[in-house]
């Protein structure tokens, strides 16, 4: 095919990736994009990467920006009168140094190894409580009974959000998670629910803002109180920065861990010998989590902006282009993995991109790993004969792809 035909084919495949009909199994689409190689779509100011070395290079490159305002597309929107930041101050994930460095350095104090380790007994207790409600032989939805309530309870506990307010948080989080999908980059248009997402974002930030003010007066043993008190070299977070940080951590710590637990169970139930092995040996859970992060990750793609003219692999990327990084495709690259499409927790040490790389490596990675490991080992120990009850369904999300339900019989 000619270069123009290759570009048209990648554009077609990206649109297919957005189609909910392909949510259950996007991997054949990723395979086709990866075979076509890194591709620039000039009219969209978009470069697409799906091979492991290219994705790794984008994530590590010092000229890869995370601030969307550096993109050519965003600059055009602002010049046309659009709001620069319609959701307000972004979390540090969507900022570049030095702002990213300063905010992350302060926020990471609340995710220190000491803090995460101290949470283990509470997470064990939560898992035991949730599984204690379930009986062997009974049918239940694994999402509703375990994969969803566990990380939600943990992140609410961390932030100091009253658990009774979680249903409103969950609804807002689900809408905002869809906002991470690359509709504008691929189609040039916003998704249909943009007004609903703006309203959800405004409500969530307002709620968190009120909570921050309450914690200033009455601090507690929670993350918001720690962020208020956190200080590094005489620097402290502003109220707006604390709200943006908590907003980011709630969505990231909520949606992704739900997906991780559910994706692991779904893979294990498709490969019964691995479930039986985990039931007999709970210590296998950590390796299963890592293979799930590679094989069917809770975050399927991310993006960066070229802060300067740069070259990724053999592709020249002009300054201002959005670089779409299909990490889920990269993690099934046959040039990087033996038997990449096979779920094999026994494959040994795994390099993957599920938590990112470089300065934006996921702050909550140790907590997500801990929650998933404890949940899987306890679930398999209690339900060695767990089996699917019906075909599950998927949420509409492309980026934070995950199951909406997972019916099983214990």
From TrEMBL:
Gene Ontology biological process: cholesterol metabolic process; lipid catabolic process
Q: Which cofactors, by name?
A: heme
Record pathway: Steroid metabolism; cholesterol degradation
Similarity section: Belongs to the cytochrome P450 family.
What is this protein's name?
Steroid C26-monooxygenase
What are the record keywords, sorted?
Cholesterol metabolism, Heme, Iron, Lipid degradation, Lipid metabolism, Metal-binding, Monooxygenase, Oxidoreductase, Steroid metabolism, Sterol metabolism
The record's section on Pfam families has: p450
Q: Which domain of life is it from?
A: Bacteria
Q: Which PROSITE patterns match?
A: CYTOCHROME_P450
Tell me yes or no: is Manganese among this UniProt entry's keywords. no
The UniProt record lists the keyword Lipid metabolism: yes
């Amino acid at each position: 095919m000619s270069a123009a035909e290759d570009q048209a084919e990648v554009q077609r495949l990206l649109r297919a990736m957005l189609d909910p009909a392909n949510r259950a199994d996007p991997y054949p689409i990723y395979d086709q994009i990866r075979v076509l190689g890194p591709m620039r779509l000039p009219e969209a100011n978009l470069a697409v990467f799906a091979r492991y070395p290219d994705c790794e290079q984008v994530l590590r490159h010092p000229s890869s920006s995370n601030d969307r305002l550096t993109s050519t597309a965003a600059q055009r929107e602002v010049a046309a009168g659009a709001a620069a930041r319609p959701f307000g101050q972004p979390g540090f994930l969507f900022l570049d140094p030095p702002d990213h460095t300063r905010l992350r350095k302060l926020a990471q104090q609340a995710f220190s190894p000491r803090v995460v380790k101290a949470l283990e007994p509470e997470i064990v207790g939560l898992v035991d409580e949730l599984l204690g409600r379930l009986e062997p032989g009974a049918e239940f939805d694994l999402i509703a009974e375990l994969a969803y309530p566990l990380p939600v309870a943990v992140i609410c506990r961390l932030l100091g959000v009253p658990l009774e307010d979680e249903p409103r948080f969950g609804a807002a989080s689900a809408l905002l998670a869809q906002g991470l999908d690359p509709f504008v980059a691929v189609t040039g248009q916003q998704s249909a629910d943009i007004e609903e997402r703006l309203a959800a974002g405004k409500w969530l930030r307002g709620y968190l803002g009120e909570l921050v003010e309450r914690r200033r007066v009455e601090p507690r043993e929670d993350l918001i109180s720690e962020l208020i008190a956190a200080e590094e070299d005489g620097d402290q977070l502003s109220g707006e920065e604390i709200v943006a940080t908590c907003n980011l951590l709630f969505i990231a710590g909520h949606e992704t861990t739900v997906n991780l637990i559910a994706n692991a169970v779904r893979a294990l139930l498709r490969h019964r010998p691995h479930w039986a092995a985990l039931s007999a040996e709970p210590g296998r859970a950590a390796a299963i989590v890592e293979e799930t992060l590679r094989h069917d990750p809770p975050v399927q793609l991310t993006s960066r902006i070229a802060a300067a003219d740069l070259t990724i692999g053999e592709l020249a990327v002009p300054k201002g282009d959005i670089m779409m990084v299909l990490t889920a495709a990269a993690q099934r690259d046959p040039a990087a993995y033996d038997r990449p499409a096979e779920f094999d927790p026994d494959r040994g040490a795994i390099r993957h991109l599920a938590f990112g790389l470089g300065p934006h490596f996921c702050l909550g990675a140790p907590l997500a790993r801990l929650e998933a490991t404890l949940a899987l080992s306890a679930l398999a120990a209690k339900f060695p004969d767990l089996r699917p009850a019906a075909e599950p369904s998927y949420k509409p999300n492309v980026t934070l792809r995950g199951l909406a339900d997972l019916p099983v019989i214990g």
